[in-house]
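Hello Y.,

Per our agreement to keep a running log of every chain we model this quarter, I'm adding this entry. I've kept the format consistent with earlier entries: sequence first, then predicted structure.
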Amino acid sequence: MEGNEAVSDRNIFEYSYFPGCSVITTAWESNQSLMQLCQTLGLNLVELEDWNCCGSSSAFTIDPELGFNLSARNLSMADPQRPLLVMCPRCLHYLRKVHQVIRQDKTVRKAQERRWRRPLSPDLEIIHFLEVVVKLEPRSWKQGSLNGLKFMPYFGCTLFRRPALRRERYYQGEIDKVLAALGAVPVTQGLTTHCCGSFLSVVRPQMVSRMVNRIIQSAQMAGAECLVTVCALCQLNLEIRCTLENKLPVFHFSEILALGLGAKDYESWFARHLVDPRPLLWERGLIK
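Predicted structure for the entry above:
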């Protein structure tokens, strides 16, 4: 693949991979761009066999035990010899939260091992894709490939802070640094960590539209041309619930990073967006 020579000759690093429900359905383009990006970066993702929903907000709210068991089952299938990579911040939160209990409470761990008839490693490393990218030292990559694209990094509330996991590192602000290393211009004066409404989008769409409009307007007022997020649900809400006349494109982090590193097979990703990003990218000379 043509692209960034600084990352093309890296050794292959292997990770277990938990896609999560949103990333392989409504955010299919996020998963596809991630696959292409990992090839460029020399990352081999081994998808968990027969994985299931992490429990998300619904199961943990209605039946916490069920939600716990769902996440624990996924953890039981992860090879402890390699890190478990997760793309969705919500999945990351629940998998880490359950793993924290399993690590600290031997009784719970033994009960889950009996339930699933598999061992659960208290030493399993669970990481977000953004953490992997940061460790690859993006400052050494080819500069200028994103041609000054002005973006607002949107972290949302889940990746930005989790009180129960406050000792875990979440790499706030790293979207800015990674994409700036490739020549994009971060605009950070907007509402980068305000909640997009999350699952309230289903039952209170009008309320979520007000929340989303405030976020988009803050980006526009700060001079951003687009938003970049690492959360599939945030990306969906920011597009589908925006009722402003002038909307902004909202990219998945994996899409814009893959593009910056020389991806060519991007048409199927951007065609799925509700707010077409191609005119902006064409104007910036990023696509043909």
